[in-house]
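Lab notebook, page 48
Experiment: co-folding of the full assembly
Goal: obtain a model of how the components sit together before planning crosslinking
Operator: M.T.
Materials (sequences as entered):
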Amino acid sequence: MTTAAAMKAEPLSNLLRTYRSREVSGFDEVLDGGGAVREHWQTVLDDLGELTDAERDLRTVRLARRVRETGIAYDIFADPNTSAQRWSLDLLPVVISAAEWRFLERALIQRARLFDALLNDVYGEQELLRHGLIPAELLFSDPAYLVPCKGILPNAGGLMFYAADLARGADGQWRVIDNHTETLAGIGFALANRVVHTHVAGDIFKDCNARRLAPYFQELQSTLTLHSGRENARIALLTPGPHHEDYFSHAYLARYLGYLIVEGHDLKTRNSQVYLKTLEGLKELDLIVRCISGKSSDPLELDPTGFIGPSGLLRVCRKSPHIVVNAIGTALAQNRGLGPYLPRLARHVLGEELDLRDAHRRWLGDADARQELFANPERFTIRKAQEGTGRPGQAALGWEARALSTPDREKMQREISLHGATLVAEEKIGFSTGPVYSPDGLVPKPFAVRFYVSRTAAGGYQVMPGGLAMSIAQDRAVALSAPDGQTRDVGEGEQAPHISLWRPTLATARVERSQRVIQSRVADDLFWLGRYSERADWTMRVLRGALRRVEEDSGPDTGRRAARKCLEVLLGSDLSSVTGTHETPPDVEIERLCTRLITTGLGSRTLERTLDGLYRVAHLVRDRLSLEAWQTLSKFRGGETWRKSLSAAHPVEILDLLDEGITAIAAFNGFMHENMTRNFGWSFLDMGRRIERAQNLSEAILTLFIPVPDPEETSSSLLLLLELADSFITYRSRYRLDPMLPLVLDLLLLDETNPRSLAYQLSAIARHLESLPDSSQGAGLPDDRRLIIALLTSIRLADVEAMAKEDKGTMLERLLMDQLDMLPELSNEISRHYFNVLDEAPHRAHTRADPSL
Amino acid sequence: MIYDIVHKTHYRYRSTVVQSLHLVHMSPRAMPGQSVRHHSLLVEPAPASRQDGIDAFGNIEIILDIEEPHQELVLVARSTIEKSAPPPINRISTSAWDALDRRLLHAAHERDVDVLLFRCASRLTVPTLEIADYAARSFAPSRPVLDAAMDLVARIYSDFKFDPHATDVSTPVTQVFSERRGVCQDFAHLALACFRALRIPARYVSGYLHTHPPVGRPKLQGADASHAWVSVWSPEYGWVDFDPTNGILVRDEHVTVAIGRDYDDVSPISGVLRGGGEHSVTVGVDVNIAAAATAG
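Observation: model returned without errors.
Model output:
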């Protein structure tokens, strides 16, 4: 061995030391039977070996950070009390040799063709069932068999997407452990993994020549455009919404392909068309990429229990069958019971031998299969034949048939016989192992890979050159249940000459973008995002004002009175009923109130509730937020810690934490302000913020100055007001005087150049409303415009000098009361006019008849 | 026998329905022994569009788009139906219930998929072991399938109490079974769960029943109702109808509207509304004899 070669071999053998020491029973991806590194892994391992330990650890940390920031790992709606599955991405990809890839590619395409033919038959002539090639009862017992789709699916242009979970058995043979024919099956995760991995580790593995994903998605895009029949097609991806565990994948893919992301209630159907409800009225959609289950696609005809899809979608498909891909009903082909029948089906339908077998499964509707199970229960796991497509790796665990040897045996056997048509028994297969990077070097772990297949414009199929590899628990046959969320990128190792690959920016492949339209629902969410972010800011400012006055001890009496005022601002008249007295409460009491206002107990305006609201709507419109804005917000709240320390902290610490919170909200608003396109969406976000601010300010002035306080208290209240409205500096630079009522009122009520004044908020709202499309048909102004004119006029006509001179403050009070009456009305009118506030409701009647004969 | 049937459904909503979409199965289908002489469906307010079609079971289905704001919705289906008495059934001569596989899945034969579909449990007819046990008492080994079916239907009639307040449209069959009460729709679902637990092809039938007033009293208008029963398959007779609510073999007083796996497939009116709040519904059905028999 030359010196150079020896030096190169050294780090590699270090990396593999732990790997070699682990017991590996079956097939190993990296090492062959003799313990030598397989050829197609050599380059990857060499590249990794060239890095120092520190560099490898650094990259691992960066990967984790990038995964978190991209949002793959984030599951906001997960119950905090359960250990939500975290997504992690390994430094090392899974490498597949070029020869093997060619085999897999052919085999996967063959399966897509087979399922395509199967679906067209089952929803059409049913010849395959008539001739007994598949037991009819297997498919008819599957809840995914949607009878109303009969006659529709065969005209829909066939199976567009297919994904398969593959694992290599202990014998080195690849086997299909699950099929996914319903939706895109989490392809967004695979894409995001590749983008993140390339970003962090692309330079390490650049010698490996993995093929880029972009051409695959370009082909997919042109196929879908062709399928829609229109060049400038308006294409939307239909998702169940942010609550779904796959939402990240949907949103990421939609953004990557430049498609709209829509939910069922964004859509309206008519005879042969589907429309998107937008601020500008109904817009026709040309194609829907379905990411919701077929069964939930139409509450009218398919799912009497749910409201996920748009009602009436199926009747649209009857007239325009191409409009939904995958066509509704395709989930049927992923029934696990089909496995044993596929080889015969391939010979009959395609005239070919099936290249890739399914893991050994038997459909328990078959009496012989049940006998086999009952005779050898320890060999099998029992699963539902149809499970649907959830987050990759989240297949249900199945039920160990071992229990069949317990005393309850007879009952269980009868249960299985009764429901056998919807169950399968699967035999455990060992899995091959592949390397996972750990601080001690490489460790062998069993894994499975999800591969993606889609139709091409020419009518064939293509396989995405990559995949989503997931670690799986040993002994847990068969469908992909990944216990730890560990994922890996998959690359095919070409031994061909070098081409430039794995470019850091996949975004260059983005082709056309469909016209941006704002759904009414999104406008609604943005409006509330504006309101909540302003409310959060205001609440924190008020709390800070109160606590400061207690802590800073600036002359005990006025300090406490002002602190009490602060809380009155938040609580309004509730304060007296909470403290039970009109007297100024002692410091301790004020602190206690602040804490309760932060966490729980006091009405809907606690900081906790407001932040919950803010975070919830932010999540709903995540795909409209810039990455920075989202990150600012998630760091801030991501702090469960922030909230915990807030509720446990000493008042002085609370002040620091409030400062932190106010800064975070300011940064969030700043990013929104700088990065958001000034479209109608922006108008609603800004209007929400302005209405909230106008309301808070009006309330504050009313609380602090009505009834009119004595002169000493007036001046401390003025200081407080300027602080809350963040206008102290403006006031000082303009007047260089101690605060005086008429001047402060002018600055905060009338001055349309001060972005904190009431008049500024109102005129901004007026401008937004002017710019919005007017979809109302009636004559005259819509109510929202009438209201804003009234609000603005009332403030513009106000005479602050006269108001300041009044003993009882009647004029000021009337002015503010008018504002406080009309602002909520304005908010309601905007909702009514622009958003779809009505929920859909089911409508069924019982059939009852008395016995009569 | 010729029947004139008026089926009127009247919905009243607490608040305005802005728009609604309905799937309607109120138009009787033609089938052996039953022909449709006349049919009309009147909808108020008038729908913006109406699509008539035949569903996968051969039923007539109508989809209505109502885009006019409304607080009441009225559907009136008028049908004139001619029924002939079905041929007599010799229940004892039918195949053994546990030998149907030989007939249905014979290797050399083409399978009758339209029969096989109805052997499978559907959303509303999933059996439990208890239901399977209940059914099994009528199905001794080798008993002729229709003879056993009649026995089961008669048992349901005597073991279960008709009680319109015990259940609603979403009551699961398990509850009907454990409480031993329900309405026609529930008994039909229970019978189907029993048959399908034993893999006997059986289907849900929705329609009308001609009722008789108590002796010596005039027949009340609107006193009839939409009805539901079941149909069981045998190789010898094809589909034969049984009425578990009345414990009888169906003759010529039942008028079929639609056939499906369960209520989900044939619900007379189902819909999705925007707005509306709570609603109340009144249903009136009149089945009157127009003529005793046809000239031919």
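Interpretation: Residues 173 and 285 of chain B are 26 Å apart (CA to CA).
Next step: discuss with group before ordering constructs.
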